[in-house]
Amino acid sequence: MSLNTPSQASTGTSLTSVAVDLSGKFAHIVNRQDDTISIYNIDAGTGLLALFGVPVSAGAQPFHIITDCPANSLAWTTKTAGTF
Fold first, then answer.
1. Splitting the chain (84 residues) into consecutive groups of 10 residues, what average pLDDT does each group show?
2. pTM score, two decimals?
């Protein structure tokens, strides 16, 4: 992929935060208005994103996200509405 070749990966509504795991293999994206988190595989050669499964529910209005480093087995979010 060259710098002149745009690429797109669709996500939910109102993206507010992105966390990439330490391995560089996965990106977790918070979709605030959809109340979901989208998980993407990151292609090591091109950097392109491919949706991994389906978006997961995150409760009311998730906002920030961090991953469980270095295990990369968990992710935590903060919320701006509802009960934790």
1. 53 82 88 89 89 86 78 69 56
2. 0.74
